Amino acid sequence: MTVTQRPIIFVDADACPVKDEIVRVAERHGLVVTFVSNGGLRPSRDPMVRNVVVPKSADAADDWIAEHAEAGDIVVTQDIPLAARCVEKGVHVIGNTGRVHTPESIGMAVAMRDFKQHLRETGEDRGFNRAFSRADRSTFLQALDGFCRRATKPT
């Protein structure tokens, strides 16, 4: 992203529970949103909302986002490996629950993901995720709005 270019919000859209919220926040800040998915997205008439449909392979959406997001852009994803790839490029990364990933925190997030995967593979953990809550939605909105305000603030 060049200095005069506004950031783009890239969304790992498959199973993302905060799509409507992302569009509302982006609209308020005049930012383009790009939803990336394996399919099933409703087209939008809003010229600031773009849908990218990728092949149905396992990491196609992640690969597309990692390739196209640039330093200063914003990525919304729950996928820790994708978050790590984007943080490495200087992209602002936020999870659907408002968890912000930074260069300082991403290493622990990757380690915890790998540990939990090991527990699931050994049968020690059944892999149940807690339900998405109102508090998660509120935390997400605050974090995304903060990213957008900082990204669009005149320097």
TrEMBL record:
Domain of life (superkingdom): Bacteria
Pfam families the UniProt entry points to: DUF188 (PF02639)
Family membership: Belongs to the UPF0178 family.
Cross-referenced PANTHER family: UPF0178 PROTEIN YAII
Name of protein: UPF0178 protein HTY61_04500
Taxonomic classification: Bacteria, Pseudomonadati, Pseudomonadota, Alphaproteobacteria, Hyphomicrobiales
